[in-house]
Amino acid sequence: MTQLKSAATVDFDLIDKILSECGTKKSNLIAVLQKIQEAYKYLPEDAMTYVAGKIGLSPASVYGVATFYSLFSLDPKGKYEVKICDGTACHVRGSLPVLDAVRGKLNLTDKKITTDDGKFTVETVSCLGACGLAPVVVINEKVYPQMTAEAIKIVIDTLIKEDSEG
Q1: What is the dihedral of CA 108, 114, 115, 121, to 10 degrees?
Q2: pTM confidence score
Q3: How many CB atoms lie within 10 A of CB 21?
Q4: Do residues 62 and 68 make contact, with C-beta atoms less than 8 angstroms apart?
Q5: Rounded to an integer, what is the distance from CA 48 to the centroid of its chain?
Q6: Cα–Cα dist 68/63, whole Å
Q7: What is the pLDDT of residues 110-132, one digit of tens each?
């Protein structure tokens, strides 16, 4: 198993509650991992190892599932998850300048996707299924249609200001 980040202290009572809700059958592993990720915004190594023991799988098997599906993350995510669609419609209508603007504003790259303060994580996604709104950006659950480089900078500035105000 590769070295995973273990930034969060795992609440094993919470993990037990999730296992109780989802069940401990091997077929429930994905549902369990989804709920853990909802709680932590990623999958802590300690949580996956604990779940493996409870479900009766090897930690390597749980890790294999977690790394197979792109919906799971082994890295902590920022408070604001910025997803920039780069599907065909969004790409053609200018998603890359939007991505460049966000990365430039937050000093991020394709290798460094989370800000040092842990506030923002920026990722591209293959398709958000909102081609009529292209280029589209989703920040947490809010959809921002027909984004431009200038507009996304304003959105990011607004989030930074709101976050600093509490």
Answers
A1: 100
A2: 0.74
A3: 11
A4: no
A5: 17
A6: 8
A7: 999 999 999 999 999 999 999 99
